[in-house]
Design a protein that fits this description.
Blueprint lengths: L5 H11 L4 E5 L6 H14 L1 E6 L4 H15 L2 E6 L2 E5 L11 H4 L6
Parallel strand pairs: 1-2
Antiparallel strand pairs: 2-4, 3-4
């Protein structure tokens, strides 16, 4: 996947600002079920927020890196325990895609 341009990242961050986390990674860490749910959310919404619990910064970073690698998504932004992930859907769903639903925010 080609890296996102600065302009694309800015647009995705603007849209991501209004989103709430749809995947929460808790004490169990990164399980197959969490990866599967993240992939489903990315396929439906293309741009999602993920919240990673835990106080250990290095452990959170390791989980974030692992989920980015497991899903093939692009980490657009990381702020504290929240990460904004983007992965272009093979077939965009006009009703579910956050890029379509919140396109007016990126103008």
């Amino acid at each position: 996947m080609a890296a996102l341009s600065i302009h694309e990242r800015k647009r995705l961050r603007q849209i991501g600002h209004v989103l709430n986390p749809v995947v929460m990674i808790g004490g169990q860490g990164l399980t197959d079920a969490v990866i599967e749910e993240t992939l489903r959310a990315l396929n439906d919404h293309e741009l999602i927020k993920v919240k990673v619990a835990g106080e250990d910064r290095e452990a959170r970073t390791a989980v974030i890196d692992a989920i980015v690698e497991a899903t093939g998504a692009e980490a657009v932004q990381k702020i504290g325990k929240i990460i904004l992930l983007y992965k272009k859907a093979a077939k965009q769903n006009q009703h579910l895609s956050n890029l379509v639903r919140h396109a007016h925010l990126a103008n």
